């Protein structure tokens, strides 16, 4: 008996067991807290998705050309994306397409709320659930909450917009666009491309954005660019279908008579006195043309070359292929030599200046200087500006690249929209004076808190 009482076998094991009781409790409590952390991370993901989707809806409602966002309310869209990340408001149930919400055990409830303040959308996601081991700390329930805020930001309205291929800067141009911006809808890694050296000056540009990335060979111009931005809707796309639908029968007088050859030449516009189009027309070298009104050109290359001088207030519309004959390739613009070009677009177009078939798109012709639907050409067209030349108005070339070599003429409505654009000269752009119907609108949605 005495030996048994003096025996110490098992005492360490007993002490170990005694010590393990609180240790296991702490570990279990840590595991429960860990599960809260995981739920918190999932809730944050759901809040981010809800806020961003709500921001997209808000941007859509402000007229950025979205497709289906506006078919539902902002609150619906935000909660839809929260549900797709497994968080549903208990009052709504599992009522959203793609929802990953499940039926929770008794005592667990989720809530999703959305608030809008100006251009900010805030989504708050929470899950209330019972506490288990944490009850020893006085917690009966735990409310796990996450919030995110998305901002809808309006970029400077682009006065230079590429519809497909990159916006390129070459050489050492100085580009001024203080009241507007430059944008590219290219999705390439170099949707905005600076090729040259540190002499490329874009310090006086409101904003630069691209749907893809930005590349540069010198300097730090890409630091100004907003990359992977949403596409900018083309405000003049309605002209494409309207003008492509024109027929010779829409011009009662048919082809215009040949203009006089004695300089200066007052080239008759549509409706004054004839309602006609020019077929296979070229401006003659060493002649001076005074333009006033809207001019339609079909088939062949419209050459402006040598010592030709063109002045006035006018809109030049080049008609698409097959307008007159099935073999016609359409009208295209070619500028070569050193012509003097000083053309300003009219502020508005009236119904008497165009065929009745274009009555529905008169608002899109405000400030329109050149419309050229020429099929894609690798060389595209070059617009040259210098101390005596200027193109004041909107140049719209949706299907082929444009090289813009600059203009010293500064007006409040100078804008270029083209398939691709290369800026290689000192250029001034400003669309603050353009009609709202012809100005691109660019917005981005970003998370500002998460």
From TrEMBL:
Q: In this protein, which residues make up the domain named DUF2134?
A: 62-150
Instruction: Give the Putative Flp pilus-assembly TadG-like N-terminal domain ranges.
Output: 10-54
Transmembrane domains' residue ranges:
none
Q: Which domain of life is it from?
A: Bacteria
Name by which UniProt lists this protein: Flp pilus-assembly TadG-like N-terminal domain-containing protein
């Amino acid at each position: 008996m005495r030996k048994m009482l003096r025996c110490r076998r098992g005492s360490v094991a007993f002490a170990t067991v005694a010590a393990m009781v609180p240790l296991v409790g702490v570990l279990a409590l840590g595991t429960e807290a860990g599960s809260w952390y995981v739920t918190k991370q999932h809730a944050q993901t759901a809040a981010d998705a809800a806020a961003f989707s709500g921001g997209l809806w808000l941007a859509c409602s402000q007229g950025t050309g979205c497709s289906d966002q506006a078919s539902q309310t902002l609150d619906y869209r935000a909660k839809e994306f929260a549900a797709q990340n497994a968080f549903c408001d208990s009052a709504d149930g599992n009522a959203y397409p793609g929802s990953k919400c499940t039926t929770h055990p008794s005592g667990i409830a989720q809530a999703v709320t959305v608030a809008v303040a100006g251009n900010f959308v805030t989504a708050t996601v929470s899950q209330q659930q019972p506490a288990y081991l944490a009850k020893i700390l006085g917690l009966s329930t735990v409310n796990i909450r996450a919030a995110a805020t998305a901002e809808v930001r309006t970029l400077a309205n682009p006065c230079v917009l590429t519809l497909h291929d990159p916006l390129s800067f070459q050489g050492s141009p100085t580009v001024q666009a203080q009241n507007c911006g430059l944008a590219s809808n290219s999705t390439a890694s170099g949707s905005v491309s600076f090729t040259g050296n540190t002499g490329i000056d874009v310090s006086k540009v409101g904003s630069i954005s691209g749907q893809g990335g930005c590349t540069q060979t010198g300097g730090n111009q890409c630091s100004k660019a907003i990359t992977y931005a949403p596409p900018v809707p083309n405000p003049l796309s309605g002209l494409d279908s309207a003008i492509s639908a024109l027929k010779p029968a829409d011009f009662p007088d048919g082809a215009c008579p040949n203009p006089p050859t004695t300089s200066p030449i007052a080239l008759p516009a549509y409706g004054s006195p004839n309602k006609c189009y020019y077929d296979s027309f070229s401006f003659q070298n060493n002649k001076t043309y005074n333009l006033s009104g809207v001019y339609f050109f079909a088939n062949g290359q419209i050459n402006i070359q040598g010592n030709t001088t063109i002045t006035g207030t006018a809109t030049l519309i080049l008609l698409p292929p097959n307008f007159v004959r099935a073999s016609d390739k359409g009208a295209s613009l070619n500028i070569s030599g050193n012509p003097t070009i000083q053309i300003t677009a009219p502020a508005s177009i009236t119904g008497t200046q165009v065929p009745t078939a274009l009555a529905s798109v008169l608002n899109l012709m405000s400030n329109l200087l050149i419309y050229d639907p020429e099929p894609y050409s690798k060389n595209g067209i070059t617009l040259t500006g210098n101390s005596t030349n200027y193109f004041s108005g909107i140049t719209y070339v949706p299907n082929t690249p444009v090289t813009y070599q600059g203009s010293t003429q500064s007006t409040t409505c100078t804008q270029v929209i083209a398939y691709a654009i290369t800026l290689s000269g000192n250029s001034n752009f400003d669309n603050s004076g353009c009609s709202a119907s012809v100005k691109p609108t660019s917005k981005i949605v970003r998370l500002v808190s998460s």
